[in-house]
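User:
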Amino acid sequence: MTGVAGSMWPRDSGRRRAIRAAVALVCAILLFLAVYNDYSVYESPIGKVTAVSTQKIKGSTKRQQVLQLKIKNGHEKGQTVTIVQRYDPSQVYDTAYEKGDMLFLNADCTKVAGVKRDYVVAAAILLLLAMLVIAGRGKGLLSVLCLAGNVLLFYFLARLFLAGHDILWLTIGGSILFTLLTLVLISGFRRETLLAFAAAAVSAGAASLIAFVLIWLSKDIGYEYLDFLPEPYTRMQANHFFLSTIIISCLGAVIDVAVTITASASEVLRRDPSIQPGRLRRSMSKVADDITGTMINVLFFTNMAAILPVCMVSLANDVRFLTIMKYNAYFDIARFLDGAAAILIAIPVSTFAAGLFAKGRRSK
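Assistant: Predicted structure:
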């Protein structure tokens, strides 16, 4: 497999771009319509709201809705049912429905059990994939394949975890496969790719080792505040789970830094094959200076986004900010700090790998 930047993909023309955009959009629309009308894949009855009547309830702050729904699947398909439901105007614990909503119903079609939102998720994903193919050309298509491959790999790792395998070892093995799959599909199987993989593996491994030591030295980590930790659990299982989240959170940023520096080194060598390794390292250090601040800030906002809703709700209920940071935001802050450390480690490691690449090119 050759690099995408090479002659693998022909030069774009206006006609070819238009054809690619049309094909991508038509495929996205067809897939969206398939998901929108996938009623038959669900066992629970699904009804589409055809009419809504809302009125206030005397002596109460709540309101009452009379919903008419047309059943879309099951033995009652095509029939119309009427459901009466109440909701609070704040809609914190219940929901007001509108005409056109797709609703899951209970077995006898007398109550609303939930909202069918799979087509909304499908629309967002398909729009992203179509934009990747349209804007990225062949590289965008490989990005789509890479994303699909990573999702499938994550699914198999999750199945292995549910089968009883230790999550830490699954994460370590999965991280190696994630990195290889991403780099090979995006950059091609080349020497630069192998150097980027080595730099990413060393950097992520060093940052994970630091996190491992700190976690095992800590005796008072409040794992009861770690969301989605499977229960019941031992302290070792909790440590493995926490360390696994740290490894995954810093992996993407480390890969990005390693690829950016090694790709920049490859371009510099293409333009000036006689450049000395020391000069190349200095050039790559300047590249690293330009991306370090941006990457660390991206990592910060990514981790803080997870705690923002909890922070807002806690502050509204008179929970002190320091208490939120100490307990609820502790794990997100730890992931951010270790990810930032991984980025800082990746810079000299990737720069050193770029120097080795230069030496290899000169020896040839």
